[in-house]
């Protein structure tokens, strides 16, 4: 099997919000992939291994090997998936609306500003999970809480959840 035809490989950490975004996008688009866990804590951080550094010099997750290339940075990966697997769409067809969704996704991923739909959702759910994990009071944000709850009911968000990943410690599994 050629590298271009090989099954994608996602290098991921179960609790990484960036990896979670990519897992959601892969699930929404119905893309089957192999997962290689990269534990960010064990052994001083497996992302710092020589093997992983050769794969991703930034030494961060996620990294996705697909179509003969290795991509890093969650939104770059998601944009590539959107361009190479256009259905279902994560971005509107209208260029202005598409730019707005990208702007919101960047805000959530980089500056945690709420909120819109589609690609932005991929960024919202992991950030809310991190806020909840660190006991942030979400009561001042009822719209975010409502949208997050609705998204967590979708199958793509369920299967990509950190508690359902193969590298999730037993005590944190769903």
UniProtKB/TrEMBL annotation:
Keyword tags: Isomerase, Phenylalanine catabolism, Transferase, Tyrosine catabolism
Cofactors: glutathione
Pathway info: Amino-acid degradation; L-phenylalanine degradation; acetoacetate and fumarate from L-phenylalanine: step 5/6
Keyword Protease: no
Residue intervals of the GST C-terminal domain: 1-170
Broad class of enzyme this protein falls into: isomerase
Gene Ontology terms for molecular function: glutathione transferase activity; maleylacetoacetate isomerase activity
PANTHER family: MALEYLACETOACETATE ISOMERASE
Family membership: Belongs to the GST superfamily. Zeta family.
Protein name, as recorded: maleylacetoacetate isomerase
């Amino acid at each position: 099997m050629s590298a271009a035809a090989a099954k994608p490989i996602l290098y991921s950490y179960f609790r990484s919000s960036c990896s979670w975004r990519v897992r959601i996008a892969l699930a929404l688009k119905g893309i089957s992939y192999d997962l290689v866990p990269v534990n960010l804590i064990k052994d001083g951080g497996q992302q710092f291994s020589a093997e992983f550094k050769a794969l991703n010099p930034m030494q961060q997750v996620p990294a996705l090997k697909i179509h003969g290339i290795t991509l890093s940075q969650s939104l770059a990966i998601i944009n590539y998936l959107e361009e190479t697997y256009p259905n279902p769409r994560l971005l509107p067809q209208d260029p202005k609306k598409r730019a707005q969704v990208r702007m919101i996704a960047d805000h959530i991923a980089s500056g945690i500003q709420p909120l819109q739909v589609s690609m932005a959702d991929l960024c919202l759910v992991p950030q809310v999970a991190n806020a909840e994990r660190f006991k942030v009071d979400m009561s001042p944000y009822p719209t975010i809480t409502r949208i997050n709850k609705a998204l967590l009911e979708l199958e793509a968000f369920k299967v990509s959840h950190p508690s359902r990943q193969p590298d999730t410690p037993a005590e944190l599994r769903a």
